[in-house]
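User: what does the whole thing look like in 3D?
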Amino acid sequence: MRAANRGDQRAYARLLGAITPVVRGIVRARGGTLGAEGCEDVVQEVLLTIHLKRQTWHEDVPLRPWLYAVTRHKVIDAFRARGQRIHLPVEDFVDVLAAPEAADPFEAQDMARVIDRLEPRAAEIVRAIGISGESAAETGARLGMSEGAVRVALHRALRSLARLRERMIE
Amino acid sequence: MKTDALIAALATDARPQAGLGARLLRGLPLAVALSALALLLVWSLRADLLAALTSPALVKTLAPAALGLSALGLARGLSAPLPRAGVPALLVGALGLTALAAVLWGVATGGLGALTMHAEKPTLLTCIVSIPLLSALPLAAILWAMRHGAPASPLAAGAAGGLAAGALGAMVYSLHCPEDAVLFFIPAYGTMILVMTALGALLGARLLRW
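Assistant: Here's the predicted 3D structure for the full assembly of 380 residues, as structure tokens:
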């Protein structure tokens, strides 16, 4: 995280990759009723928050307690917000419905819906870098933007995502 | 969207981010300077400012300044998921207790009449109206910076921000205020600083959620 806070992309990706199973474990332990997809929505929400609030971690203390505090906060938040929604576990329909194709458990729905609500160019950038795995430079070349401008737009888009999610859930 | 895809997008956005301290430095000095400019243009400085600033009345400006800075440290400490109050909380507490002790000592030696005498002064109304007005911009700058934090308790963090804004507003107002009596300025400034603290807590609970 220390390297990540100085802008080391690869170290940061490794860190997020290492954190994700831990977060997923906490979310699943707390929210079995949400189903795998619902849990993954919450996991992604937590990761986005960790990303946007990462400068509130002080480098002189261990990372783990901070990580747990953020995760706990967002998980409680997410379940409180979803408590109002009616959730029908698909298991109840197993006898009625034809067995659906097993969905990739890491595919979450909410984030895709929120990305659709971004303005087109911001959504394009998030999809290009996230889903198609382009680098900021490649996206910039394709869209006729400088690499720096793509990074700024990406950062703004991620902040809007967090805002939009909150509004959508409320 | 797959979680791996999200991680890729997040990692690409790994530029170092400005911390709360840096954001405070970006907006707050300007806000305080604008408040001071407003004081200069609308309220005017007290005529004997230079004499006052070289006399014991200087404490009327220095104490709110010290309180404001300590409260800023406190607001910063409370803006994290794992809050830490530490030294700034002690400083705020010590300043508050000293002010309270000074008032009690003043009442004990001068009687309650010494306190109520000041309540009839017309400058009291000016003071009560002015401090919140002069605190408004600092409060906005502080809350703007704090929105990038992640406070365990938005209410407490907002209160610390309001305390800082109120103290800075009082510091600015002290450059106009002609009353140097301890039993005037501590109760008057203190009350208005507490009002701003409550306002900060209310706003914080709404604006600082994350």
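In plain terms: The longest helix of chain B spans residues 182-207. Chain B has a mean pLDDT of 88.
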